[in-house]
Write a structure and sequence with these properties.
Elements (H helix, E strand, L loop, with lengths): L1 H27 L7 H27 L8 H28 L8 H9 L8 H7 L7 H25 L13 H15 L2 H4 L2 H11 L2 H17 L6 H25 L4 H11 L6 H8 L4 H30 L2
Helix pairs in contact: 1-5, 1-10, 1-14, 2-6, 2-7, 2-9, 2-10, 3-4, 3-6, 3-11, 3-12, 4-11, 4-13, 4-14, 6-7, 6-12, 6-13, 11-12, 11-14, 12-14, 13-14
């Protein structure tokens, strides 16, 4: 177990190195807040879709890994991504109720922020560290799984944070990463992928996609610097957020990974996702739809910092539980 914890601990270090670089660059003034939107658009609308396309094409077409090539497997992975976020939000809602939060005092923002983990860019470097053997399809499975997470955030997540379905728009789902997953899966399932996934295009997608993860993590570090200077800590809210996101939600998701009849590769992704701290997107949604961004901000920062210690432990326990 100690060996597993050490290995998991080493796997999360690159994430915090990128956070530290971003924090330092913002403090130094090298990356100004007005630069963030352009850089993020480059990463999210160009780099990340290329990373998704390359990973799915690689494991479902060019290498044709039999374990992940079927429609049934893809639907299972997508469904588990949706289920994980639903489980996390239910746990956070129960904690918010115990905290006696109500609408107008941060209930919606707390529930979404403590319930939704940073399922994309926080996870990618961990997968790259833990499952980098040639032919290992874990990265491709991650992006298929994350389609379920995106569907949850931009449907039920938006409904929750804005207090109803009035602000739910189909255009919210038509985002670069989600479209990249849909297009890649359709190409793979239809058989057309063999004509598209040719070496020149695949190499270009690989090279462009490689910039997405470090750039987004560095920008997240910049945001951590900005956020840490602008709000007042609320110890009671902070403690409840840590309990929901880093204790109760991981335990429930690991239980689901162990109990449900799932493919081992999907279980592996669920174990990793269970331990991940809060995502930044609920804070963004809270700002856009009239939530309490200060509530989300402190949960985001606290869970991110504390996950440096909790994440390796949950990873080790989860991998031992599923026999990975």
């Amino acid at each position: 177990m100690l060996h597993l914890i050490l290995h998991a601990f080493l796997s999360v270090i690159p994430v915090f190195i990128f956070f530290g670089i971003g924090f330092w660059l913002r403090r130094k003034g090298s990356i100004q807040p007005q630069h963030d939107e352009v850089i993020m658009q480059l990463a999210m609308d160009v780099g990340y879709p290329c990373l998704v396309f390359h990973s799915i094409m690689k494991y479902m077409v060019t290498e044709a890994h039999p374990a992940i090539s079927s429609i049934g497997f893809s639907l299972q992975a997508i469904g588990c991504g949706f289920l994980e976020l639903l489980a996390g939000v239910v746990v956070a809602a129960l904690v918010a109720r115990a905290l006696r939060l109500r609408v107008g005092t941060g209930w919606r923002t707390f529930t979404l922020t403590a319930g939704v983990q940073n399922y994309a860019f926080f996870v990618i470097p961990i997968v790259q560290m833990l499952f980098s053997a040639p032919g290992d399809p874990t990265m491709g499975v991650l992006f298929i799984h994350n389609m379920g997470c995106e569907l949850f955030v931009w449907s039920l997540g938006v409904v929750l944070i804005c207090g109803g379905a009035k602000n739910l728009r189909l255009a919210s789902l038509l985002r670069g990463p989600l479209l990249a997953v849909c297009v890649s899966l359709l190409l793979a399932w239809s058989g057309l992928g063999q004509y598209v996934a040719q070496p020149p295009l695949m190499k270009a997608a690989e090279m462009i996609g490689a910039v997405a993860t470090p750039v987004c993590l560095i920008l997240f570090g910049c945001s951590m610097y900005d956020l840490s200077r602008r709000f007042r800590w609320q110890p009671r809210m902070l403690s409840a957020g840590l309990l929901a996101r880093l204790v109760l939600a991981p335990a429930l998701i690991l239980l689901l990974a162990w109990a449900l009849p799932l493919d081992p590769l999907v279980r592996r992704i669920m174990v990793i996702q269970s331990a991940i701290p809060s995502a930044v997107i609920p804070v963004i949604l809270a700002r856009r739809f009239g939530g309490q961004p200060d509530v989300g901000t402190q949960i985001l920062l606290a869970t991110t910092l504390c996950s440096f210690l909790t994440l390796p432990i949950w990873l080790a326990m989860g991998m031992a539980l599923i026999g990975a």
